[in-house]
Write a structure and sequence with these properties.
Helices cover about 25% and strands about 30% of the residues. By secondary structure, the protein is of the alpha/beta class. The strands form 5 sheets. It has a 7-stranded mixed sheet, sandwiched between helices. A two-stranded antiparallel sheet has the order 2-3. A two-stranded antiparallel ribbon has the order 5-6. The model has no long low-confidence stretch (mean pLDDT about 90).
């Protein structure tokens, strides 16, 4: 199965870093969050990626074009004009990088990469800013078993503030950043059949609007519930939180 990753947005809510690079290239532990996402899929045995580029897409192209160069020991023979690589630390990835337009919406980006997908074969679809310890193999099996056109991963958003339980003004209980209000949200890890792309009109179509709403209305959208770790990197605060988790050596998504 191939994995399509959206990596073309502006990332305006984390502009402290995204004015220099695409949001998926903002680093967690010295590696772009895009790399962390790809490691999730690779650990589950999925190594064929299609990355949808937009804002500053050349940065992502240069990163992968020079991936081996930056991660290996090497000898540069200036006289012969040659480079010899030693102890390369590479990934078993095949990465197709597709320019999908600077202003294209999420659905439009998916439609633009349709020709790089395998006809008749389901594929993963995700955002370039979310991390999780979701079992991707189980997600794929769930999708295969129900036979519908699309699967969405449903997650409970983490709480942002500590919660108080009061009785007559006295604090009975304090819980630091509990889960949200028990509502579930789009966790961003999809499995889709190729025909869902027919529901996308063009560049101006948001995946989260008409296509998803139509799939739900037609009974073609199933939810895979994930109760484990999930986090989206929307702000610098989120980035710092993920950085601290990685530095601790106990990041839930670490592979």
């Amino acid at each position: 199965m191939k994995t399509v990753i959206l990596a073309g947005g502006l990332g305006t809510r984390i502009s402290e870093e995204s004015h220099l690079k695409p949001k998926p290239m903002i680093e967690i532990g010295g590696r772009p969050i895009l790399w962390h996402i790809m490691k999730l899929y690779s650990a589950a045995g999925f190594n064929d990626f299609v990355v949808c580029l937009g804002y500053k897409g050349y940065v992502i192209k240069e990163y992968f074009a020079n991936y081996v160069l930056h991660s290996a020991d090497l000898t540069v023979d200036l006289d012969k004009g040659s480079i010899e690589y030693h102890a390369t630390n590479h990934e078993p990835w095949r990465v197709t990088l597709v320019e999908t337009g600077a202003e294209t919406m999420t659905g439009g980006r998916l439609k633009r990469v349709a020709k790089y997908l395998t006809p008749g074969e389901a594929f993963f679809f995700t955002y370039g800013d979310g991390l999780s310890d979701v079992d991707l193999g189980a997600l794929a099996e769930f999708h295969k078993a129900h036979g519908k056109a699309a699967t969405i991963t449903a997650v409970a958003p983490p709480g942002r503030y500590g919660a108080l339980e009061l009785t007559d003004g006295r604090v009975q209980r304090f819980t630091e950043k509990p889960p949200g209000d028990n509502g579930l949200i789009n966790g961003g890890f999809f499995v889709l059949q190729p025909e869902v792309i027919d529901r996308i009109d063009g560049d101006a179509t948001s995946w989260e609007a008409a296509p998803l709403e139509g799939l739900a209305r037609d009974g073609e959208l199933m939810a895979y519930r994930h109760d484990g770790f999930w986090a989206a990197m929307d702000t610098l605060r989120d980035k710092n939180h993920l950085e601290a988790l990685w530095a601790s050596g106990e990041a839930p998504w670490r592979r």
